[in-house]
Amino acid sequence: MTTLLFLPGDGTDWRWLRFADGMATGEGEGVPEIADAVIAVAPAEDVTLHWAELPSRSPAQAAAAARILVAEASAEPVGDLHVAVGEPDSGPGGRAVAVVSAGRMRDWLVQLAAIGVDPDAIVPASLLLPEPEQGFVRAAIAGRGLVRGASSGFADEPGFTELVTGGVALVDLDDEAREAGLIAATARPPLDLRQGAFARRRRFAIDWALVRRLVVLAGIALLLTLAVDVMRIVRLNLSADRAEMQADALARTGLPRGETVTDAGRQLDERLSRLRGPGRGFSESAAAVFAVIQAQQGAELTAMTFEPNGDLHIGLATQSEAGPTDVKRALEAAGLTVSASTFTASNGRVTGEMTVGAR
């Protein structure tokens, strides 16, 4: 359902026509009950129409070219005018260009807002008439006389009409032709004054159905992410249990046959300690001492005793007074603790004892 709402003019009040399913369904005076689409109709006497060849590549280019043409043809400053451009196929003479005072446009929108209407479009009244192939047609719509030519449109006023038509006879439209023109203009307005600064603002509407779908999808994505994390944790736990079982089985192979197994790892450490001795064990401690003494020129190992507590007592002989100190520093650098006795010099040799242990 679409309502044509005629803006008040000089000495006139609101008028309206309503269409639905391609036919007129009602008309009246005053402000109707607004429903569905509303197209406001601007009084023909307040809108000047021109036709011109304009670029069809973009509305912005067409509007810019139209403003240049209007500036050349109008006595008023173009900054005080609102210029709107019609559809590319709006007439054989080119595209329709409507010129109206910017102040008048603001007044109309204020009047419409006062009655709670934000029209889908504002159409010049004379463009509601069907475009004639030649000459001029005339009809009264909502109590207002209108004239339309192939490249003109204006209010029907005595004296002015004859001047514009140049004496060409007017064709009066019958009710059927007039209604057909109204239905066509309602379905596709040939020119909408709501352009540029007066364009209708798009209202942002929340698509709650889409919001719900997005929330559901986000929930599913979150659940999938959590499921992946849970599966990763389970897999890591299973891998850790399997590795622990393998390590336990390997540790059991190093224990004496028939030994009761309670903690294979701890029991294996105990057996290893018994086999190698306390501390770092005899083999590792002795190997470190041999390596250090072998590297020191003139140093000689004269005795070695491995104590139950893991300490290694060694007898050492060197050729110089600094020899024992060098050996002690080298053993400490190898990660051992060293305590030395008093070294004495005799027969060109410096001898004494050291106790080497694990750090």
UniProtKB/TrEMBL annotation:
Q: Which InterPro entries match?
A: ATPase_NBD (IPR043129), GspL_cyto_dom (IPR024230), GspL_pp_dom (IPR025691), T2SS_protein-GspL (IPR007812)
**Where found, per UniProt?**
Cell inner membrane
Membrane topology term reads: Single-pass membrane protein
* The protein's name in its UniProt record: General secretion pathway protein L
Can you give the residue ranges of the GspL periplasmic domain?
208-357
Every copy of the GspL cytoplasmic actin-ATPase-like domain together lies at: 41-151
Which CDD domains does the UniProt record give?
A: ASKHA_T2SSL_N (cd24017)
A Pfam family of the record is T2SSL
Family (UniProt): Belongs to the GSP L family.
Listed under GO cellular component are:
Gram-negative-bacterium-type cell wall; plasma membrane; type II protein secretion system complex
Q: Which SUPFAM superfamilies match?
A: Actin-like ATPase domain
Keywords on record: Cell inner membrane, Cell membrane, Membrane, Protein transport, Transmembrane, Transmembrane helix, Transport
Please report the organism this UniProt entry assigns to the protein: Sphingomonas gellani
TM spans (from-to) = 210-228
Gene Ontology biological-process entries: protein secretion by the type II secretion system
